[in-house]
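quick one, 212 residues, struct below
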Amino acid sequence: MLRLDNDVKSLQGFANRSYANEMNVQKTVLRDLIGGAQSPKDHDEWTAAVEAGTSRVRAVAISWEPILARSVWTQAVGSLVDAFAVKLITDVLEMPSISQDDAYAIAKQIASASELDDLFLPSKLSGQEPPADGEPEVARTPQYAPNWLRLRFLSEFLQSNLNDVKFLWLESELSFYFTADEVVDMIQASFERNERTRQLIREIQGNRNPRA
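---
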């Protein structure tokens, strides 16, 4: 029994190392697909990169499905989706300026990437058929990809005017996912610098934790 226990521990260690290595490989491939010289300002290149990243996540999810237990599969695919979201968010936050055309194009690609929600529908996760009554399912993506809602709120910001941004910060949940400094930086990159913009910035800086 002692020898058997040692063999089991050895196999478990090998499996854990193999899993960790595979995750690192897949995240590297994903970052390469959506990284490099692409910038959200290069709309065509960034669109192609986002599409390639989305396709890669789907392909890996399909290939892992018959191999991994469902609980492990959700954690693994969720980790890839989260890495994808982090890269998209970082690309946008690093932009020194965001025109209306940029904002529209970026929001459109975020919407395209958000279709990965269908990997985390309750029926999909449980292996059951979708509801027969056609009732829309609420994806559980944020449960496995912590930055998913951050990506969604970034898209909301990009499609907002100054009044909308004020509402998102003071009344909605933007402050749960972005810091005051990050939002101020995005405002300065996205809007003309006038008194209305400066007033909103002052309000945000004076209400750094509005939902606390």
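The radius of gyration is 21 Å.
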